[in-house]
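Contributing: when you submit paired examples, paste them exactly as shown. First protein:
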Amino acid sequence: MLDFLIAFVDDHLRLGLTGDEAQHLDEQMRHVREALPRIRSYSAIIMDRITPELAGREWYTLRCPDCLKWALLAEGGEVRCLFCEARWEAEAFVLPYAVEVLEHSWRDYRKTGPPTEDCPERGAHALIDEAYLAAAPEDARQYCFGCSTEFQGLESCMRCTRLSQPADGPTICNDCLGDLG
């Protein structure tokens, strides 16, 4: 019944709201969604429902910073939780992930900003050095939430300091190699 009511609010009631009303409902529903994982029977029902959608996507599945369930898909530049239905822009997701999932302090990033780097594949500023994927939950990975690519062993380019996949010899990114060429 709770699942039905939440879907009803999202699918029907929210559509008729605008401005402050919509913002107020979103804030209130965020509180509701944060409490949902503590309701065990509800949690089990939702996890049973979304498990088929998560199957085979373990390399794109992470813990959600809102509900802390292994139900967040970071795939194709889209970052969304199937359990609590939270959504983020890829570049904005890194900070909540670092603070809520990795348990880093907000203060760590107050002056420096989120712990992100530019992705060597697509250039999105959505690469994090420490991500844990459902496929290997004990192993930290370098992961780009913008292109959904897992990296290992990226190093700073000797010339511009952007991260790059090392090759034989000194690490130089493709852009710098093109400039030298």
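Second protein:
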Amino acid sequence: MQRVIAVIAARQGSQRLKNKNILPFDQSNLLIHKIRQLKKVREIERVVVSSDSSLMLDMAEKEGAEVQKRPLEYADERSRTFGEVVSWIVKDLNADHIVWAPCVAPLCDEYVFQQALKAYYEHVIFSKYYDSLVTVKVIRDYIWDRKKPLNYSLDRHVPSQQLPYWVSVVNGCFISSKQQILKNSFCYGEMPYFLEIDKFSAIDIDDEFDLEYARFVYERRRVEKISRERTDD
């Protein structure tokens, strides 16, 4: 039986948004909200929270998650590279596959995780063509590199359907085997399968606007769900 666990790496410091990982969200905060989402996923055996914050670790334990106390040198973003931090977190975990789940994407819920694991089994474990999975969102915008000339005439408008098909990595989840993570010193490999998720699920909290937007969308979805349930009754 392949052991699948989820890891939430939640350090104490935050450059742009102070105490970002434990900012209020729904009935709790971003960290607790993510733990509860992951615990609803049947395929995930355990949830591990890695942090340098005793407060966050205490919250995690009360939610039934396992905790990993991280020394400051693996949490200050200066002493160690991100790759070294990732390797340190996973090296002693008893798992075959790891779902790396940041808590800054609160609308990436249990349904997205289930979809991601299904795609991971199909495209990574069974086919072996890809070595990991990354959640992404599609970008089809008019992006201009000012250092390069336009490659089309200024008098010819390019319809958005003809724009290049780009994707942007989303902090929803990354799935990889423990072996691959230690090999690459990263939470995904060189040949990841891109799982496209919708724009709402892809909301990534980086600043105050993102946080308010996520709260608004989440509450609206909650109200719509209650309304549908009442209609069905």
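If you have annotations for the second protein, write them as plain sentences, like these:
The longest helix spans residues 208-232.
The chain has a mean pLDDT of 91.
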